[in-house]
Amino acid sequence: MSNPLLDSSALPRFDDIRPEHALPALRELISVHRGKLTEILGDPANRDFETLVAPLEEMSHELSRVWSPISHLQSVLEDPAWRDAYNESLPLMTEHGTELSQNKQLQEAYQQVADAMPATATAAMHMLVEQELRDFRLAGVALPEASKARYRDLMQELAAAQAKFDQNVQDSTDSWHYHATDEAEVAGLPQTALDRGLEEAGQQKVEGWWLKLDYPTYHAVMTHADNRDVRAAFYKAWATRASDQSDKDQWDNSDAIEQILALRHEAAKLVGFENYAEYSLATKMAGTVDEVLDFLRELADRTRSSAQAELDDIQEIADAPLCAWDVAYYLEKLKVQRFSVANEELRQYFPADVVKRGLFALTSKLYGITVTENPDVRGWHETVKYFEVRDEEGNLLGSFYTDLFARKGKRSGAWMDECVVRKNLAGENVPPVGYLVCNFSPPDAKGLSLLTHDDVVTLFHEFGHMLHHLLTTVDYPSIAGINGVPWDAVELPSQFMENFAWSYEVLEHCSRHCETGEPLPREIYERLNNSRHFGDGLAMLRQIEFALFDFLVHANYDPALGSKALEVLNNVRSDVALIAAPEYNRQPHSFGHIFAGGYAAGYYSYKWAEVLAADAFAAFEETGIFDTETAARFRKEILEIGGSRDFMDAYVAFRGRKPTLDALLLQSGIGKAA
């Protein structure tokens, strides 16, 4: 029987794909690609964009279609076999990627194409070749053979260490629970959290409530649990995941952090950079280490007074000096007291299916597209849905899967990832396909999943990424959608979309009370909107803390001293944080964004892109948030271009000028106060 992973004629065959298919499919395809590459490079007299670059784009696209389900399924299924298949396949993928990026003959061929680009070559063609040549340099293509071999070894070790880091966090999270047997322990918790706890206890055949450490439960406890000891227990469990301070330290990431930072630093030095932070900036909008640090510190300085005022307000209603596990709880209390708006009251108006329909209606209004579920397409879990996106003429632009609910074995957080990247080459137009993954509270016995407004904002955020992926008009996969986009700009479409989740004209179409069916009343919306910036100062400082730690731990790494990660974090906290973290706090040990994801020396991107997003949304506010001309310009200059143009040039083409920091501060309710 043929390997279903190698069938790229349609969508992934999730019903047929098995873990044992992964490694054979990759080996077979990579072997075929090596043969094709040898043939292409064997004819140096016949090298141009169509004979060299286009075939390489085809091969890259084909390989990504095989790798995508492997990488995806190990993140969303409670099946150790998929994790094993991923871990076994990762070295092969890493080896092949480095082999290509260090191929001197291939680099020279790309340079030959760059030097002889015809006058008819498009801007996208030029940008693609320029980015490929840059990536050759960043992979050390010009290094002596011994150094190239060392770089290859570093990439293998780094890929394995990052994967292990991520898996340790997941295993540590899944292993912890709190067994409550007294009603006083669960006082204040939302009914949805109580129902889940009772259901889990029943499955464990024990009395009381079995509360797990998935994010919906953790958030419910930290925000609503009246029992301070329970909040403290959950805080410690969350803050010590995958660390030496965890109840179960077999998943301790301490050594992994040291290994990852050492490997990154050595790799950066090998290819000519002083540190990994400098290396990271080679593919971003920000130019220098100092530029990033100055940006973050200015933002912190201009936020601190607002955050301190918020903290003072919270302390006034607390019955004891605030600890880290008290802040979210008293923020919620004060929000209810000051604005008469509570998460649980709002949740009743946001059934997940209703929110999705309203979100899709919004994108139709803005961009003239339609989003329709296709129930005939099966996913990897019974709760997965599949949707098709079409233009006004009914042409298929792309499609996506949604996997919205938390479950054991599924990676925490929310993300959008590529299933298939757009490609339009050699007469074949392949539309993009994406995965939209969240960890909302699962449907109850009635089939209802009720979202908090924070969840609504998260869904809008991830769908912003999805639109960036789906609406691209770039034909070449390497620079289509989110590919080739500077990492400190890739969050613009997602953070831009969050703003619509605060508009009444949008929310009235995204809400239906779970019992009465009425949309969110204007009066409740006004209370919600009045509370929008409540806590923004503290939240801003917390994100700046993460970003500064990430950047400094990479920029100042000294191989003779090691990372000193906790010391770096404590120094950042002494400069930025207003709330003391307990000594046992090991936040870096579960910081997957930078130690397992794509945000290494790049977490600042969230704040950098937030400036762009606030400034971009201000353009919509100036013309009306549903203004089709503004939306068409945003789609043309931002969503469609992928990595085919200089991003700041594209932003200026949309906005008419460069962005300003004041737009973010004003939107956050912080204003221009220093």
Mind telling me the C-alpha Rg?
Answer: 25 Å
User: Can you tell me the overall shape?
Assistant: globular
CATH topological fold name of the largest domain? Neurolysin, domain 3
Percent range of helical residues:
55-70%
Number of domains: 4
CATH top level of the largest domain is: Mainly Alpha
Note the gap between the termini.
67 Å
* Overall CATH architecture of the largest domain: Orthogonal Bundle
Low-pLDDT runs = none
User: Could you say which structural class the secondary elements and strand pairing correspond to?
Assistant: alpha+beta
Task: Describe the protein.
The protein has 674 residues and is α+β, with helices and mostly antiparallel strands. The model has no long low-confidence stretch (mean pLDDT 96). The termini are far apart. The strands form 3 sheets. A 5-stranded mixed sheet has the order 3-4-5-9-6. The longest helix is centred in the N-terminal third of the chain and has 31 residues.
Write the layout of secondary structure elements.
Layout: H1 22-41, H2 49-76, H3 80-101, H4 104-115, H5 123-138, H6 145-175, E1 177-180, H7 191-204, E2 209-212, H8 215-224, H9 228-239, H10 254-270, H11 276-281, H12 289-317, H13 327-339, H14 343-347, H15 352-367, E3 370-373, E4 385-390, E5 396-405, E6 415-420, E7 423-425, E8 428-430, E9 433-440, H16 453-470, H17 492-498, H18 504-507, H19 522-530, H20 536-555, H21 565-576, H22 592-595, H23 605-623, H24 628-639, H25 647-655, H26 661-667
Parallel strand pairs: 5-9
Antiparallel strand pairs: 1-2, 3-4, 4-5, 6-9, 7-8
Helix pairs in contact: 1-2, 1-3, 2-3, 3-6, 4-5, 6-10, 8-13, 12-13, 12-20, 16-17, 17-23, 20-21, 23-26, 24-25
